[in-house]
Amino acid sequence: MRAAKGTPPFNEGTQSFCKNFSKSGKDYFALVYIVIQTSQIILTKKKGTPPQG
Prior knowledge:
mainly alpha
């Protein structure tokens, strides 16, 4: 997926996507982004941090 790598077409698409959104749409997009970030942090904690020492 090219979008996951943050290529310029994806960035331009995201900007126009946000511009076309209403404020509630932007809030929803931000909420989804926060959920994704949180889930990534949780997954990283589950994967790593083995008891050392």
